[in-house]
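User: Teach me something about this protein's shape.
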Amino acid sequence: MVWKRSDDQPSHSPEPSPSSPPRPAAPAPAPAAGASDSQRRTDRATIGPSIFIKGDLSGEEDLIIEGRVEGKVDLKQNNVTIGKNGRVKADIFGRVVIVEGEVDGNVFAREQAILRQSGAIRGNITAPRVVLEDGSRFKGSIDMEPKDADRHGSTQAPQTVQQQREAKQQQGGEAAPAAPRAASA
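Assistant: First, the predicted structure itself:
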């Protein structure tokens, strides 16, 4: 009869076999925590080394460029990284712009522009904070005017050095720099 009861137990045996130790969803809560990490990871797009894009790029996530891009990269609210294999012929707008590859164009960073040792920029950099690592290659100008310059009473946009020189020349040629000094003294 014990054996006959075992025939009845097959319905009970599935209950013991799906024992609670294999089912504990301890890993399930970990993926839930990992989901927020994976969401952060998915908030970063990558243009691979074999990809070539010609045109304007825009979006609302961080971008890593390992391929080639020609046009404009407009991610003002996000980080833009030009990887070691990246080759960009474009103006780049980002929150933080990191260049490890090559950029032929202007870089506009809201917070910081970083040119790594392996990187090269042929163009101007406009950012409140700029880092040029030893060994990096750069040809252009750097504008580090504070982004809140107009909060301090300035109603005009900050002028570049070239614009300042041109304004002085229009006011009186080469002698223009001496006139303001004499007037202020």
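Now, about its shape. Residues 43-144 form one domain. Residues 12-41, 149-158, 175-185 have pLDDT under 50 and may be disordered. If you'd like, I can walk through any region in more detail.
User: That's plenty for now, thanks!
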